[in-house]
Amino acid sequence: MLKEYLENNIHFLPNVSDWKQGIRESAQPLLENGTVEPRYVDAMIQNVIDNGNYIIIIPEVAIPHARHEYGAMKTGISFLKLEEPVQFPEESPVYLFFALASETSDGHLDILAELGEVLSDPDKVEELKQAKTASEVLNILDAI
Predict the structure, then answer these.
(1) What DSSP string runs through 66-97?
(2) Most buried of 23, 60, 102, 126, CB within 10 angstroms?
(3) Rg of the chain over all Cα atoms, to the nearest angstrom
(4) Cα–Cα distance, 48 to 117 (Å, whole number)
(5) pLDDT score at 144
């Protein structure tokens, strides 16, 4: 399921100006395909402002998200890999973003379970950090 959701939602950038731009860029595919409205992206940023770095679930990996009522039209996930990490508040560097949306309060749980499986393997996280193409990312996810 994770691989299918990510199929056309993977992109790479050398860097971003700040963590807010990182969240915006990570959610761009979800905006483009109608999974989320622009206000959903604003809510993802506001979550970090209000609640801190809780979206950084393991070192160097963030899962920006917001409550579905803030403009999630469908369930979806996108992936952004930065060549240079962006600093979040409290000097927390992030290379990998998985922007997550769900049109219901629990519609994303299967995706999160699969993602958790990948991210609990330090070798897979390192492979994702080294990936240069969308097909490489999909192959890493295929191996779970």
Answers:
(1) --GGGTB-S-EEEEEEEEEEEEETTTEEEEEE
(2) 23
(3) 14
(4) 24
(5) 61
Average pLDDT per block of 10 residues along the chain, 144 residues long: 90 97 98 96 96 93 94 95 94 94 77 89 95 95 72
Non-local (6+) Cβ contacts of 70 within 8 A are 39, 40, 42, 43
Of 49, 53, 51, 48, the closest CA to residue 90 belongs to 53
C-beta of residue 78 within 8 angstroms of C-beta of residue 26: yes
Q: Report the domain count for the chain.
A: 1
Are 56 and 87 spatial neighbours (Cβ–Cβ below 8 Å)?
no
The domain spanning residue 16 has which CATH number? 3.40.930.10
pTM of the model: 0.94
Domain containing 66: what range?
2-142
Helices 19-32 & 38-51 angle (0-180, nearest 10) = 150
β partners of residue 80: 11, 97
pLDDT for the residue 2: 85
